[in-house]
Automatic annotation (TrEMBL):
Catalytic class of the enzyme: oxidoreductase
CC cofactor: FAD
Entry function: Catalyzes the oxidation of D-2-hydroxyglutarate (D-2-HG) to alpha-ketoglutarate. Also catalyzes the oxidation of other D-2-hydroxyacids, such as D-malate (D-MAL) and D-lactate (D-LAC). Exhibits high activities towards D-2-HG and D-MAL but a very weak activity towards D-LAC.
Predominant place of localization: other
Reactions mediated catalytically: (R)-malate + A = oxaloacetate + AH2
Alphabetic keyword roster: FAD, Flavoprotein, Oxidoreductase, Peroxisome
InterPro entries tied to this protein: FAD-bd_oxidored_4_C (IPR004113), FAD-bd_PCMH (IPR016166), FAD-bd_PCMH-like_sf (IPR036318), FAD-bd_PCMH_sub1 (IPR016167), FAD-bd_PCMH_sub2 (IPR016169), FAD-linked_Oxase-like_C (IPR016164), FAD-oxidored/transferase_4 (IPR051264), Oxid_FAD_bind_N (IPR006094)
Residue ranges occupied by any FAD-binding PCMH-type domain in the UniProt entry: 115-294
Natural source organism: Zootermopsis nevadensis (Dampwood termite)
Protein name: D-2-hydroxyglutarate dehydrogenase, mitochondrial
Subcellular locations according to the entry: Peroxisome
GO molecular function ontology, one term from the record: (R)-2-hydroxyglutarate dehydrogenase activity
Amino acid sequence: MISLRVAIIQTEGCHCEIRKPANMLRHIQIHTIASRKAAVDLIQNGLVRGISQSLQCRRPEVELTSVRYPGVRRGNYAQLSDRHVQHFRSILPKERVITETEDVAGYNVDWLRMVRGVSQIVLKPKITEEVSAILEYCNAENLAVCPQGGNTGLVGGSVPVFDEVIISTSLMNSIVSLDELSGILVCQAGCILENLESYLSERGFMMPLDLGAKGTCQIGGNVSTNAGGIRLIRYGSLQGSVLGIEAVKADGEVIDCLSSLKKDNTGYHLKHLFIGSEGTLGIVTKVSIQCPPSPKAVNVAFLGLDSFDDILRTFTEARSGLGEILSSCEMMDLLSLDAATSNLKLQRPIGEFPFYMLIETSGSNGTHDEEKLTKFLETLMANGVVRDGTVASEPSRIKLMWNLREGITGGLLHDGYVYKYDISLPHNSFYAIIPELRTLLPADKVGRICGYGHVGDGNLHLNITTPKFDPDVLKIIEPFVFEWTSKLKGSVSAEHGIGFKKTQYIHFSKSQSSLNLMVNIKKLMDPKGILNPYKVLPAQH
Ligand code: FAD
Ligand code: MLT
Ligand code: ZN
């Protein structure tokens, strides 16, 4: 039985404005016994194992990185001494030189709680000159440093491996300028992404990137990881939107590439050295970024589907049918969504299906977008590709739907330990690794094997959970996942970076000659290797 009820009400004007029309939510329902059964089977056949007991897990102390990874040796750097601390206090006021063990503790542990360093000091500069003075001194004294933004990185890059000096940009949070004609924003690196979004939306603009960690991550961290996120399909990568960068090299020299020009072909594009280099080539202190105008109409469709092939069909149709208004194309399987619904107690807006998609449109003409979206959904439903769905145009409803997709990352942590992979794959082989891993991994040890991600960008987030870290499980997953990805000519890191966790796997996605050039660039810019050691480049370099 198929029933379709569509009542479209568009929110015009700034998409942050909240209005209350009577029927903001469009609900499309198709009832098929088969699709519900498939979804229920996934749960009942034990694919979500050990979750209830792991929900009761308390947060045990994270094992030291040096203990969990005994093969990683501390570099020949100086040890922090009282003399060093005194010097830092001559650069920064006392309250911005943090040395109390309990105050430093949080900066030593990453968001995923998988790595922990033993730094004894956090420095909090406010201006570029302070960063410069700190780095000049650390370089002269051979003190290793770890740049840290919001500490939401997922590859262990943002925390020290051993006792590196932590340089936190969290107080470098001023907006320098916004050109309201061009939409070019210049700000300090420590501005929180969500704060920038709020600032811009009040002025009719938006950030060209958005991600689940927006409330905590900083633009400097975003640029340093070349973060992708949920709107890359529409606005492209930061390599395109970032127009200029100011950064401080390891020896304290300030590199001013803070261009606010859209076109500037004067020599090498040095900004690209810093975009995505994860704090290994310099500390980003300011960013100039091209911001698009806020859309006038936004719609989000949350769809239930029976198979991954149906996801690909929907994506293909979205690209051609929605065209320029498509602003997000995300997928999640049932077990991924379950991490948000069961573990975070979020409400699922439609029934149980093996797969879900979240499709967002945004544009400047609500009526036009509405026509396109309706036609798109009607076609897919008539063909039986989309089994059930709900569409929202009202900001608070849209947020609820996005919470489901963005809540997965945090929800997974409730299972215990998360083995997190972020790979780029050709679309036709996108999901195949999940069933493969379900046959490879021991049922009694593994809680969840699930996949979600930015399907529109060919970026799968493959996640496996166990109640606690299990080295035997890890041995089955790695290097298998990377070999699989490499055979398909994918990338072992689509958007999260290499950080500490993936250094020995970078060669699966980079040729030896590229790696050699990376090593030479690193030597040129940071000859003593003080900037974020043990990250990005493989250990032998
Ligand atoms: P940090 O985690 O502090 O640092 C990340 C790396 O950048 C480290 O190597 C650090 O040394 C370096 N660094 C930080 N600031 C600077 C600086 N100013 N100069 C030089 N180096 C610096 N990532 C995505 O790409 N897409 C997503 O959709 C996405 N979603 C996420 C959702 C959640 C819930 C979470 C927790 C994370 C998500 N991430 C995502 C990962 C993470 O948020 C991004 O990598 C983000 O860009 C990191 O920003 P940050 O300020 O937290 O940086
Ligand atoms: C996401 O897309 O949700 C993020 O990249 C975080 C994750 O991989 O869990
Ligand atoms: Zn992502």
